[in-house]
Amino acid sequence: MLRKLVVSLVVLPILWIASSTAPASASAPPTLEGRCCCSHHHGQCGCQGNQVVCCGQLDEVSYFSGLESERLPDLPSARRNYLDLITKFPKSKYLPLSYFAFGEFFFEDAQGDVSRSDAAIQAYQKVAKGTGPSDLLNAWTWIRLGQIYELRNDRASARTAYVNAAAFVRLNPQAQGASDLAAAIPKWVK
Known about the structure:
Blueprint: H1 2-18, E1 46-48, E2 51-53, H2 58-71, H3 75-88, H4 95-112, H5 117-130, H6 136-151, H7 155-171, H8 178-184
Antiparallel strand pairs: 1-2
Helix pairs in contact: 2-3, 3-4, 4-5, 4-6, 5-6, 6-7, 7-8
């Protein structure tokens, strides 16, 4: 549920900004008709159906392929796509979103076994490091960290995480998603 909300509030606006018109579909990777625009591709461009994807957009293709695989659901394929993005495109604007996706996978694992929460914490910490306090993804990351710390019965760390998320709401009360974020912060923190 949170993953879908983050995608709708964070990923779709990225698409909107990236294009001059509204995105036709969040699941469609960017493609170019015909040949690659890069003369230096050296085998790094990949075919996407009948179209060739510009090597400058392969990180985007990896991310949206992972997102589409999640929706199918084909989680092993989603994980491969996100890992591909993380390992091959360490400076991608989609890197925090890929780490967030891994955090969500690990968060689900931790629901059944709290000892598996370390991987989720590490993934979410990478998101927090790669985003700023005015970023909605950063705020949702702090919500998830707070929830994980609560699972671990570490109320002090949970409080710190929730306070970091609350800072976004204080600084951006009119931002899209701020009310959902505020509602996700437990009453005992306020």
